[in-house]
Design a protein that fits this description.
By secondary structure, the chain is mainly α. It has two domains: 99 residues, no CATH class; 121 residues, no CATH class. Helix content is 81%, strand content 0%. Helix 6 runs antiparallel to helix 7. The model has no long low-confidence stretch (mean pLDDT 83).
Length: 251
């Protein structure tokens, strides 16, 4: 049984806000929730729970977007991610990850600004570009748990449309989170306490996802795209600031 401490009430509020963002944009839940909740709980405690909650968030959204998914591109992204992940894990074990994280944050921020200012591909990227984006996602996910930005940039720079891009992102994150939860379970990180925490956070998650999804259905597509790109910039700033702070602590 979880006691209703101020830390858990604060965490429930963070889950709700992050879930609204996830339901609206199709991404952003993990980084927003982990960044906020890590202020009051150890990351090792909360991260497995967040992975489970994000998978459940995707599961609730999938039935409504399944028909919009770009399956060909998604398959190539997954193949690339499978190739890139082991190299990312190797980098995590042998390379200084914080400078790499900071570099990724800068790249994502600059790319999001370019997209916001009107850059867009005229046709869907070919197989090579999709595979490369997937490989970059796998590298980033294996090295510092941030596999989303390359895939987000891939869809938001393409002419797929906001709804199709959001649907493809929701599907991509569901399967990638499923793999992540399986690996966490294999390594003993999914415990009874993890399941209890996930169950406790389920009501704010469900309410937030419903509200965000409801808002997306009523939103103008161009406004939704601008909002998503601003969110991507915010996530890049949060990630870069965290990496920079940790770098400064090490010196």
């Amino acid at each position: 049984m979880i006691a209703l401490t101020p830390a858990y009430l604060y965490a429930a509020g963070c889950i709700f806000v992050a879930a609204v963002v996830r339901g609206y944009s199709g991404f952003g839940f993990s980084l927003l929730a982990i960044t906020a909740i890590a202020l009051v709980m150890p990351p090792a405690t909360i991260i497995p729970t967040i992975f489970m909650l994000e998978m459940l968030a995707s599961l609730t959204l999938l039935p409504g977007v399944w028909h919009l998914v770009h399956w060909r591109e998604l398959a190539l992204l997954f193949v690339g991610a499978l190739v890139g992940t082991p190299f990312g894990v190797y980098a995590l074990a042998h390379a200084p990850v914080l400078p790499l994280t900071l570099a990724l944050a800068v790249f994502v921020f600059v790319s999001a600004i370019a997209l916001a200012r009107g850059f867009r591909l005229q046709r869907m990227p070919g197989a090579g570009v999709a595979f490369t984006a997937g490989t970059a996602s796998g590298l980033a996910n294996g090295a510092f748990g941030m596999g989303g930005p390359p895939v987000i940039l891939f869809f938001f720079s393409s002419p797929a449309g906001v709804a199709a891009g959001r649907a493809s992102l929701i599907t991509y994150f569901f399967f990638s989170d499923l793999i992540g939860v399986a690996w966490q379970g294999w390594n003993g990180l999914i415990t009874t306490a993890t399941l209890v925490r996930a169950a406790w956070f389920l009501p704010p998650l469900a309410a937030g996802v419903w509200l965000g999804n409801h808002r997306f259905k009523r939103a103008d597509s161009d406004a939704a795209r601008r909002w998503a790109l601003r969110l991507l910039m915010l996530l890049a700033v949060l990630t870069g600031a965290r990496a920079l702070s940790q770098l400064m602590q090490h010196h």
